[in-house]
Amino acid sequence: MAKIKIKFCCTECGTESPKWLGKCPGCGSWNTMVEEKETSVRTQGVKSSLLGTKEKPRPIINIEGGQEPRIETRLGELNRVLGGGVVPGSLILVGGDPGIGKSTLLLQTSHALAAQGLTVLYISGEESVRQTRLRADRLGALSETLYVLCETNLELIDEAISSISPDLLVIDSIQTVYEPSVPSAPGSVAQVRECTAHFMRIAKVKGIATVLVGHVTKEGAIAGPRLLEHMVDCVLYFEGERHHSYRLLRAVKNRFGSTNEIGIFEMMEGGLREVTNPSELFLSERPLGVSGSTVVASMEGTRPVLVELQALVATTNFPSPRRMSTGIDHHRMALIIAVLEKRMGMFLQNQDAYLNVAGGVKLDEPAVDLAAAVSLASSFRDVPTKPYDVIFGEVGLTGEVRAVSRAEQRVKEAEKLGFKRVIMPENSLKGWKPPSGIQIVGVSTVSEALAAALS
Asked: What is the count of structural domains for the chain?
């Protein structure tokens, strides 16, 4: 018999300790150390054929090069985020809030690949096969090569994989799968780590593209040890507001493509629908001729997206004014307000300031600074901006407007949607020729931008 010993693991970062601690020494979280039993034999139940290969080291110049083969799905937005399609033998982790549509997305993806003649095995640990069939009926995702199994035992899942030999394996979710030889409850740090390592070996040795669904914590991060994200090849977050119909698929790690791409979907009654032109969606309800409203050209990966930015500045009745922002870092908003006070002479110390990205989009690049400054100044002065202006640029602490990347693509997107003028950093005009169908206003300071936008 293998000797069993007790250890305590942090549910947030996976740090191990021989005794219970109130505060995790690894990540500093409180009350996250849970008791687990560990056996001295760590490889029980693992097939020897999956423990490694017998390849010998080779010089890197003798290794075959070229592009990785990809399996294109019929979802163009998903292909964009993955870098062109699913790579055989890759391990993909998909996380998101409960009910956001992770299972819907993966079932539609499974059907898209099965319709191409590929074999797909969809393993659900949270729903019965009948529930999965009901969702497939609603989505129209019925195919003869799409196999469904309700199982959480890793050994039985191994048998199903060996009997079917799928091209795509979907595990929904990794927190429900357990290894019988590991004496811990499903979802624990040890179980998640061991099961993920097992699926990684299967993906690499057998060349099966594997997708794992991961639960998220209340902070929005994927539950389990941070090691989980390091083990996989690609980490995708499926996010969105519950009160809006669209969803964003964002890559935060991708060994086979860019980590800045996003895919946009709209949740419909019959499933997720791709949004090929997100700028029109985000600007569909934009009011014209209203103070505090501007349009900013933001880059999401290689795609320019035009989004409406709204600001409201109102007199406060409290000693300390409120500063609230949605979709933009509130620290960045405080910096812009300080620049307007110091450099532009605006007295905002007795004003509440609210900043919102319409539609619930999250913008984290510095190119939205100038549009945020114009929105706040427009609302403070109660002067409407021009309805067909697009504004972008980074704002420095001295009030200067700094250059941003991919200015040409932002301008072309504004021209395509019918905007008449672009206010942008003057230094971003170097090295390319602006299109003739739109007016370009280059500015070097915030004061010049406000004079051009609010005149």
From this structure: 3
